[in-house]
Design brief:
GO terms for molecular function: exonuclease activity; nucleic acid binding. With 395 residues, the chain is of the alpha/beta class. The protein has 14 helices and twelve strands. Bound molecules: manganese (II) ion.
């Protein structure tokens, strides 16, 4: 059977690091897919008697998405070490080079779109890289990490641990809105009841909070995901990591209440920004939506772009204008690949990447107008391709 390219190699390399007491660092994206990926691999390594030297999640609001210079500077004292990037890295060319210069051996485990070039790392796992023959391309990063854990345990994960992993894999797969087919369907079917009966104190506290207003298991889990998926960073860890990893209910009571409240405020704020965008575009018939503001909170813009795109069915670019740079979230309707659209204009961008339907970008403010024009001048090509896509889900 065809396996995901380099997955076995990654499993063997991590096992050898454990054996040789090499320092291991886990570096994950701050959303729920990245967080669950980190926890699965952390628990796998610890159960195989390995140690983790550091865990780091970049702050999307203050740093950037992906591997960041700030993150690498923070982790420098741990070098030389094996740096395992989870749910990010496939478009971090410069940062990967910096990591190597600092003495890290880099493994990337990602599921985002690969560009024409891929970064030079020790081992690169991404079902979407061109040379990968694995037929199923829609795994979340945590789904890839689950398969990695299976290989690390030679396909014999102790059953309690396997249940842990499945519960987390279901959470991350649902949070990333991956197509519910193939392996994803199995993870979700097996994982949902495990989440509901979870031993994790953090999940138990959350379940109590959402139980009253939710009818089905699925609804409860969706609410938990909406609370955990955008979490802030505390001491380089995501709040969702702290909640999912806590060892007593008392320990997370306060934090859980706090993020529950914040998720409510967030939904109000998202509505407000959606309203502002709607006003801006009401007189505009451009084939794309391209709006930014200095006052918007970057972390909320993914949710804003999703709603706008769902309603207007146009590629949607929503960004926060910072002092010198702007950072944005992109959503594209089915059949249009937002990463490819940006790749055509990549000379104007500092950073970009993600999935066909959901991605992000960073650029200097002086390039905003040029970027918009570049996207507009290429849009026909993407609209023409639309439809040839045989209805494939593109997350
Ligand atoms: Mn992901």
């Amino acid at each position: 059977m065809v396996e995901i390219k380099n997955l076995k190699k990654a499993a063997q390399r991590i096992l050898s690091a454990i054996k040789k007491n090499e320092r291991i660092i886990l570096y994950g994206d701050a959303d729920l897919d990245g967080t669950t990926s980190v926890i699965i691999l952390e628990e796998a390594i610890k159960n195989l008697k390995g140690e983790i030297s550091a865990i780091y999640f970049p702050d999307r609001e203050k740093e950037n998405y992906g591997l960041t210079e700030t993150g690498l500077n923070f982790l420098s004292p741990f070098a030389p070490a094996l740096l395992i990037c989870l749910d990010l890295g496939i478009t971090n060319f410069k940062e990967v080079k910096l990591a190597r210069e600092k003495g890290f051996k880099v493994i990337i485990i990602d599921h985002h779109e690969a560009l024409k070039e891929i970064p030079e790392v020790l081992i690169l796992v991404d079902p979407k890289q061109k040379t990968d023959k694995y037929p199923f391309k829609q795994l979340a990063a945590c789904g890839v990490v689950y398969k990695l854990a299976q290989l690390m345990f030679k396909n014999k994960i102790p059953s309690a641990l396997e249940q842990n992993f499945l519960e987390l894999t279901a959470l991350g797969t649902l949070a990333d809105m991956m197509a519910e087919i193939d392996d994803n369907k199995i993870y979700i079917e097996k994982g949902l009841p495990l989440i509901i009966s979870s031993f994790r104190p953090g999940l138990r506290v959350l379940l109590k909070l959402v139980r009253n207003n939710s009818n089905s298991e699925r609804e409860m889990v969706s609410r938990i995901i909406s609370i955990l998926n955008i979490s802030e960073i505390k001491n380089h860890l995501t709040e969702s990591y702290l909640i999912l990893n806590s060892s007593t209910e008392a320990e997370v009571q306060e934090l859980t209440q706090e993020i529950f409240q914040k998720s409510f405020e967030r939904s109000l704020k998202i509505k407000e920004i959606v309203g502002e965008v709607e006003t801006c575009i009401s007189q505009n018939s451009d084939p794309i939506i391209f709006e930014g503001d200095v006052d918007w909170t970057y972390l909320l813009l993914g949710a804003v772009a999703s709603r706008i795109c769902n309603k207007h069915k146009k590629p949607t670019f929503i960004f926060k204008i910072g002092e010198k740079e702007s950072k944005g979230s992109v959503r594209a309707p089915k059949g249009i690949n937002s990463v490819k659209m940006m790749e055509d204009c990549s000379h104007l961008l500092k950073m970009f990447g993600g999935h066909a339907a959901a991605s992000g970008f960073t650029l200097a403010n002086e390039n905003l107008e040029k970027f918009k024009n570049c996207l507009l001048s290429n849009i026909e090509k993407y609209e023409k391709n639309n439809g040839k896509n045989n209805g494939k889900n593109n997350y």
